[in-house]
Each structure stands twice: as structure tokens, then as C-alpha cells.
Amino acid sequence: DQFIHTKKLIDEAMKETGAKTKSELIKNVLQAELDRIKRKRLLTMKGKINLDIDLDELRDRDATAHQPGTF
After folding, report:
1. Which H or E run contains 39?
2. Among residues 2, 3, 24, which one has the least CA distance to residue 13?
3. When you count CB atoms within 10 A of the terminal residue's CB, does the N or C end of the chain come out lower?
4. Is 63 helix (H, G, I), strand (E, B) or coil?
5. Which residue from 62, 45, 65 is spatially nearest to 54, judged by alpha carbons?
6. d(Cα 71, Cα 17) in Å, to the nearest integer?
7. Per-residue pLDDT tens digits for 36-55
């Protein structure tokens, strides 16, 4: 029966995740799935984005003006 299978699935998921309510379980599972999708999308961009960034240059700072230990 589909209902019994679904109930067993929910019970197992709650046990494994530690969720205390079905609402908490659903929220956590949805968030985990969205995170997985976003990571997968980011991985498809690997090597396509140049991340060689000089923050001092971006912030229009003189990189030689900063001495270690000073702010």
C-alpha cells in the first residue's frame, strides 16, 4: 500500500535526520535538496569563472601601505 510505504519512508527519514516533526523534516529535506542542486550548478561552472581577485585593487587600496600588525 502506497500510504504504508510513505509512512515508513517518513518515519525512517525522521529517525535518520533527527527531525522532531514532519514539518521540520520537510523543511530540512527541501533545503538539503536545494543546496545539492546549487552545488551541482556551481560545479558546472568550474574553470569558467576567473577568481584571481586582488581585493586591495578592487577596494582601490595601495597594497604597499598596509604593514603587518597595523590596520
Report:
1. helix 22-44
2. 24
3. C
4. coil
5. 62
6. 45
7. 999 999 999 888 877 778 88
